[in-house]
Automatic annotation (TrEMBL):
It comes from the Eukaryota. It is found in: Membrane. Signal peptide: none annotated. Its main location: membrane. Keywords: Membrane, Transmembrane, Transmembrane helix. This is Rhodopsin domain-containing protein. Pfam families: Fung_rhodopsin (PF20684). InterPro entries: Rhodopsin_dom_fungi, SAT4-like.
Length: 166
């Protein structure tokens, strides 16, 4: 039995079995009119709400640390860095939505600005990584305050640095 390679596709599995599958018909390039609906306002609403909520929590935390407890720890300063990253990310999201993020992929406005969106998304991603890492470091330093006993406090710290300085 001869198998035409244009009609079927050969798929090999890890155990060496061979299976022949019929090829899927190619997708048509012209799928009709492109929708001009945009989800940009929803993206901005959700991102703005959670950024405002997080900023409120951090501002209240800093208020308590400064005015009630009269001391700011390293975890508080690192959390402020994370908040600045969060606000910066919100600014990037606003810019990206203005460029067409949230629109359907075939929309001419999105396609015209696609290279700019990719460029801004690259920087957006790095700031996001810095912000998330800052939150994790801040929580870790906060948890070090709860640990009792000197031997346990020095284990997670780098050599030559005492966690008592925090």
């Amino acid at each position: 039995m001869k198998i035409d390679c244009f009609e079927t596709q050969q798929v090999r599995f890890a155990l060496g079995h061979i299976m022949f599958l019929a090829r899927q018909a190619p997708a048509s390039v012209d799928s009709g009119p492109v929708s001009t609906n945009s989800h940009g306002t929803r993206i901005l609403g959700v991102t703005g709400f959670f950024t405002a909520f997080a900023c409120t929590a951090v501002i209240l935390r800093v208020y308590v640390r400064i005015f009630m407890l009269k001391m700011m720890g390293a975890d508080d300063y690192i959390m402020l860095v994370a908040m600045v990253c969060s606000v910066t990310i919100l600014a990037f999201v606003v810019l990206e939505v203005q460029l067409g993020v949230g629109e359907h992929f075939g929309n001419p406005h999105l396609m015209m600005n696609y290279s700019q969106i990719v460029r801004w998304s690259y920087h957006h991603a790095w700031i996001l990584v810095i912000g998330i890492t800052s939150v994790k470091i801040s929580v870790g330093i906060f948890l070090l305050r709860l640990i009792q006993g000197k031997i346990y406090r020095n284990i997670p710290m780098p050599p030559g640095r005492s966690s008592v300085e925090l």
